[in-house]
Every structure is written in C-alpha cells, then in structure tokens.
Amino acid sequence: MAPTPKLCPSFFPFLILLSLFLLFLYSSLLPFATNKVSTSSSSPPTKIIASSSSCNLFKGQWILDPSKPKPFYDESCPFHRNAWNCLRNKRDNMGVINSWRWVPKDCDLERIDPWRFLGLMRNRNVGFVGDSLNENFLVSFLCILRVADAGAKKWKKKGAWKGVYFPKYNVTVAYHRAVLLAKYQWQPKQSVSADQNGLKGINRVDVDVPADEWVSIADFYDILIFNTGHWWGYDKFPKETPLIFYRGGKPISPPLGISDGLKVVLESMVQYIQKAVPSNTLKFWRLQSPRHFYGGDWNQNGSCLFDKPLEAAELDSWFDPSNNGVNKEARQLNKMITEALEGTDIQLLDLTHLSEFRADAHPAIWLGKKDAVSIWGQDCMHWCLPGVPDTWVDILAQLIHKSLETG
Ligand SMILES: *[C@@H]1O[C@H](CO)[C@@H](O)[C@H](O)[C@H]1NC(C)=O
Ligand SMILES: *[C@@H]1O[C@H](CO)[C@@H](O)[C@H](O)[C@H]1NC(C)=O
C-alpha cells in the first residue's frame, strides 16, 4: 500500500504528457485525412454533389482523351483571323492540343450543341465587349455556331463592331472592341518644347465614360460578356505615351498610376453596366486569359514551345505574383476585377485557372506570316483555333442554358 501515494505524483504528469502527445499526433494527422477526402477525384461523384447548384465548372483537370470528338470546325471557317488559324498555319501538334478534355471536378461539362444553343437563342443576341482575347473567344464561338446555320453571314457596322448573323435563328453574335472599356483617346503633345521624359503625348482616359464602341448597345443584347485587362500595362502604355485619367472632364489629381486607374475604371464601368444595361440581360465578366511566355517576356524572346499542358504543381511558379514571373499579371488583375464585381448581378466567367494549364495551346511561332516572330516575338497570349476557347464556349453555353432554362 505504501508505493501507491508515491506513484501518483509521477504518474499524473506522465498521463498528461501522454495525452498531449496523442493530441498532437491526432492534430498533425488531421490535414492528411481531410486532404485524402478532398483529392479522391477518382471516385465517382455522388448524386448529391452532381446535382448541387454549386457545381463549379472552373475547377478540374485536363485529361488526354483521344476519343474526344473532333472540333466542330477547321481552317476553312470564314470567320478566322489568320494569326489564330493554327491549322492553316501548320502549327505542330494540333491533333494533340484538341485531344485534351477539361473535366470539372464535381460536375459534367457538356459539349455545346450548336443547334440546341441557337434554338434557345432564337431572336436574341450575344455580345462580347473587351480586348482581343474576347475576340479570340468570339471567333471560336462563331465557327462552332456556324455548323448549325450554313447561311451565317458577317455582320459589320462602322467602328469596332464585328460579328455574325445567323438567319435561320435570327441571332446575332458580335464583338465590340473596347480594350479599356472606358473611353480613351490619343492626344499628341501640344508644344514642341524639349521634354526631358521624351513625352510624345498622352492617352486620355475618361474613367466615367464608357467607350463609344459599346455605349449604345445596351438594349441590343440579351447576353453580354465583358473583359478588360490585357492592355493595362506599361508595355502598351510606356512613359512616353502614358495613360492619364480624367473624371468629370478634368484630370484626376494627383495623377493615378495604371493599377489605381484600372481600379477606378472598373468601379465606374461596373456602375454603368448596373445602371444602363437592362436587369434581365444576362451579364458575364470573363476573367484574365493567362499568358505563357517562358524564358522572357514577349519582347525578350519569350517562347511557348510546349507539347503538353503544365502540371497543377507548376502553376504557382508561373502565375503566383509572389514569384514575380513575367506572367504574373493575370492573377493580380483577377483579384481587382473580382473585388469590383462583388455584390453585382454580373457572373464571373473564371476561365483563368483552366487556361493556366495550357502552355501548349498558343500560336507560338506559327503565325502565318514569314517575319511575324522576328518582329513581334512569339504569340503566347492568344489561343490557337480550334483550341482552348472551344472549351470556354462549352462552359459559357452551359451557364447560359442553366440561367435561361431555370430562371
Ligand atoms: C429578330 O430578333 C429581333 C430581336 O433581336 C426582333 O426584334 C425581331 O422582331 C426578330 N425578327 C423576326 C423576323 O422574328
Ligand atoms: C532575341 O534573339 C535574337 C536572335 O537570337 C537575338 O539577336 C536578340 O538579342 C535576343 N533578344 C533578347 C532580348 O534576348
């Protein structure tokens, strides 16, 4: 009986230590356990997930699937732009590029059915507003829809209007070039006095005035897809020809840098859209299309001669702004755009992540012109057609069907 009281003092600390150790062990193993659950993508999605309304088409993986149906169009589509017509330009690897299939994690992505889609759109119009990456998107869309209406014909109005009319369905799908969304105009330097900075003039941006190219179209479209982003950089607007921001017709003082200017323009364009575009118009905002310059920027011999998509584990080293790579701007811009769209009825078309993988799918050196690469460098920004934008079209069509058929 005597040892018992003696045991207690040393036994309890031991017990406490033991339970602390077990707690530690448990908590350090916990992340592995949850990880395991969330990455078990090989198991079929359960009914509950598949039918949930939070199905996220933007997260998933590319799977090489040689049985994937051939693209809806080839180099003969009359709506191509030469520089993106990779089949005609004999780009290597086009078969493989178009054999990768985007497979969202918890839901199915259906291939667009051009007949069904145009049927849904009958007597309605779809408009893209933004920069050349939205035009890249448009061309893919037009070439796909044309399959369902051979009478499709080019539709062009003065200025930056460009699109196609589908007579069988009375549908117009068009693009309005407005690279900054806000109105901007070149103003050459007034005086010839010596200028230490080499200033040649300014690009005046009226942050509170939408560009003429799309200001009057609000009522024409039933669906609008906006973007801006690729022009908001010092390579487009160097210090000799800078962006100067105006509000209410007067220069904003103190002057804003490009990034703050973008923030102000986003706020005011989003406000304008909310006010001027009818509320029953379906509105989307396409997030940044990532670039894939490797080994240098576009003007430093950057290249994108890849024969397969990047791995998921490589994406951050390419695109996370903290790594300060040449392609970091997509995620930076997305953050600002997402903030500006909070609380609005504009749906995010977050095509960035799925496109980040596709370093293999740009026109690169196959630009269809002999000297293009030596003059402009490789094109690691736009996309080959047919190619990745066809998947963007599938996603957009699925979202449109969902919105129009359920609401
Ligand atoms: C075609 O669609 C427009 C709306 O975009 C509509 O105003 C017009 O009446 C339609 N035309 C026909 C012939 O249905
Ligand atoms: C790009 O490549 C060309 C030809 O190889 C070379 O002359 C030029 O200096 C390079 N430019 C840069 C910025 O590396």
TrEMBL record:
This is Trichome birefringence-like N-terminal domain-containing protein. One of its GO terms (cellular component) is membrane. It is a single-pass membrane protein. Signal peptide: none annotated. InterPro entries: TBL, TBL_C, TBL_N. One of its GO terms (molecular function) is O-acetyltransferase activity. Residues 54-108 form the Trichome birefringence-like N-terminal domain. Residues 110-398 form the Trichome birefringence-like C-terminal domain. Keywords: Membrane, Signal-anchor, Transmembrane, Transmembrane helix. PANTHER family: PROTEIN TRICHOME BIREFRINGENCE-LIKE 12 (PTHR32285:SF23), PROTEIN TRICHOME BIREFRINGENCE-LIKE 9-RELATED (PTHR32285). Pfam families: PC-Esterase, PMR5N. It comes from Rubroshorea leprosula. It comes from the Eukaryota. Belongs to the PC-esterase family. TBL subfamily. It is found in: Membrane.
